[in-house]
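Q: Focus on the shape:
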Amino acid sequence: MPENEKPVVESREEEISDEKAKAESPISLSSGLRRRSAAHAEVQPSHLEQRGDIGAPIKLDAAAQAHIEKHRKLQEDLTDEMVELARQLKESSLMMNQSVQQTEKILDSTERAVEHSLASTGRATSRAAEVYSLTSRTTCFQWLLLFVMTCMFVMVVLLIRIT
């Protein structure tokens, strides 16, 4: 007997074994769908191919249609939600970009102010060092003058006491 002309009893046994495999598998299938084994699909051509109805639409019952419509609606809702989330993400990204640019401008102006301040402080420090070096020489001279003046004062006091 040719392979594609198996008796009806054997195909019924294959369906029962497919249902057992479906019950044991962790993936549950919808009530209207059957799992096809890979070996069965490769060995036997389908009934549609035998009849030449390859492009014919598949007839589904109302429950299957409702199930498909429910999932289509769910997918559309999820797609709309993803589009909205993408829009919000883009807006927040643009706002964050603007915030970063403003912060960068503030940091640049602060950096310029600090550099100007450091340059002014450097000039003031060099000027203070120059003045200090000039005044340190003057300070030695002032100490010498102070000593001389004190000596003269003591001499004047002694001269007054002695005379």
Observations:
- The radius of gyration is 51 Å.
- The chain is about 80% helix and 0% strand.
- Residues 1-16, 18-33, 36-46 have pLDDT under 50 and may be disordered.
- Residues 16 and 22 are 10 Å apart (CA to CA).
